[in-house]
Specification:
Layout: H1 4-28, H2 31-38, H3 41-68, H4 71-106, H5 114-125, H6 128-143, H7 148-171, H8 175-199, H9 216-248, H10 252-288, H11 292-319, H12 321-326, H13 332-345, H14 349-364, H15 369-390, H16 398-421
Helix pairs in contact: 1-2, 1-7, 1-10, 2-5, 2-10, 3-4, 3-6, 3-9, 3-10, 4-5, 4-6, 4-9, 5-8, 6-8, 7-8, 9-15, 10-11, 10-13, 10-14, 11-14, 13-16, 14-15, 14-16, 15-16
């Protein structure tokens, strides 16, 4: 709990600040501006998830070395990870500028929304190198057991983001451009704080710019663990792009309502992911040290925390659904779509906590491919098949919303079977 709670708090705060973005643009710009921001969520995730997965690979590799007390390898892995962060961030920033409008058009973004959506995405992508630096830097700190410093940097950046949103959107009437600019500046601040912390850490965790280089052996280990996690995230996002395209077909009110709900959804999804990351780090260090008894206990603790949290928050969100959604918009048609999504999602988040909790624990041992396969089958392949072949049998948007809890249940079942029968805790020196 001492390690996991700052991670969960970071996620909740991040989602709170993102929700403030959405509330400001929905209340003080227009429903089209709200839909423009919401329609980008799955596409942005698609472009960055590969590299977020690779950052998780660096977490596992460094955690193993910490368990083994291998200082030389820790240094090599840290500097390799930072180089990968910079290169990948610049690549996504440039590549994204070219594909922004074609992909949003391909997704069927409504005509009254697409121009605003393109503006938002192109500005947002300018901050991608800083997003990558924050993710990789935070991953390095988490591997050491430090989950507090990323939280502190996020608090500072989030406050700046909120103030800038209010100034740029309400004061200067900049709409989606103002929200995007505020996000880029806050990402610069958060990454700057993380880099400052890393350069002032004690050895062997200290980042030294003169030592920035790629160590081939460490890069290979990071990629072997990180790429499957990244591919999993990318495929998950591809499925979400397909789902977003289906939602787009119901019009801008549906897009805006679902976009507003996704900000609420994050109060469950992101802490669940944080708990999973905590399991990955805890398992990684203990697996590296050969303490399989602590690995097993951490799995049960992870599941207990995740299930209790999601049951409580799911109930709380359902109880306050009307008031919560009216924070984002006064448009009743938009609110209706958001409330419908909440009724299908909120009671079933505990399934997602089981799925991600077990996946994070398994991944901490270095067994990255089995969780990838389970998540690809349940959260990607199954969803795409549903959208293509089963959705036509439903008369309304409920067919899209029902898909989520069904796919979570399938994934949880498959992950339980693997954790029970698989050989992921066989110790390898």
């Amino acid at each position: 709990l001492i390690f996991a709670l700052p991670l969960a708090a970071s996620s909740i705060l991040q989602q709170l600040f993102n929700s403030i973005d959405t509330a400001v643009v929905g209340r003080f710009a227009s429903s089209q501006a709200l839909a423009a921001v919401g329609s980008n969520s799955s596409l942005i995730a698609l472009m960055i998830n590969l590299f977020i997965g690779i950052s998780l690979g660096s977490n596992v590799v460094i955690a193993h070395y910490i368990g083994q007390r291998s200082e030389k390898n820790i240094q090599a892995a840290i500097h390799t990870a930072i180089v990968v962060a910079l290169v990948s961030g610049i690549f996504v920033m440039i590549f994204g500028q070219f594909i922004a409008k074609p992909v949003l058009s391909l997704m069927g973004t409504p005509d009254d929304v697409i121009d605003l959506a393109v503006v938002y995405l192109r500005i947002y992508l300018l901050g991608m190198p800083f997003i990558m630096l924050y993710d990789f830097g935070s991953s390095i700190l988490r591997s050491t057991g430090d989950s507090r410093c990323p939280l502190y940097s996020l608090i500072v950046a989030g406050v700046i983001n909120t103030v800038l949103n209010l100034v740029l959107v309400i004061g200067f009437k900049m709409g989606v451009s103002g929200v995007a600019i505020a996000t880029v500046i806050s990402n610069m601040v958060s990454s700057g704080i993380i880099v400052y912390i890393l350069t002032h850490e004690s050895a062997p965790i200290r980042l030294e710019f003169r030592k920035l280089a790629v160590a081939p052996a460490e890069l290979k280990k990071i990629l072997v663990i990180g790429v499957p996690a990244g591919i999993q995230g990318m495929m998950f996002s591809i499925a979400n792009v397909c789902i977003q395209s289906a939602i787009n077909s119901f019009g801008s009110d549906a897009v805006a309502g679902f976009g507003a709900y996704l900000k609420v959804d994050g109060f469950n999804i992101l802490p669940v992911s944080s708990i999973s990351m905590a399991a990955t780090t805890f398992v990684g260090q203990n697996y590296g040290a050969g303490r399989l008894d602590r690995v097993k206990r951490s799995v049960w603790v992870t599941l207990a925390i995740g299930v209790i949290y999601t049951l409580c928050t799911g109930a709380a969100l359902l109880a306050g659904q009307d008031a919560i959604l009216h924070l984002f918009t006064a448009d009743e048609a938009v609110v209706t779509y958001g409330k419908l999504a909440m009724r299908w999602f909120c009671p079933f988040y505990f399934l997602l906590s089981i799925l991600h909790g077990l996946a994070g624990a398994v991944r901490g041992t270095g067994a990255s491919i089995p969780p990838m396969v389970v998540l690809l089958v349940s959260l990607c392949l199954f969803r795409v098949v549903w959208i293509q072949f089963l959705l036509p049998f439903f008369s309304g948007i409920e067919g899209v919303f029902i898909l989520y809890p069904v796919s979570w249940g399938l994934g949880a079942l498959l992950m339980i079977l693997y954790a029970w029968k698989g050989k992921w805790m066989e110790y390898h020196t």
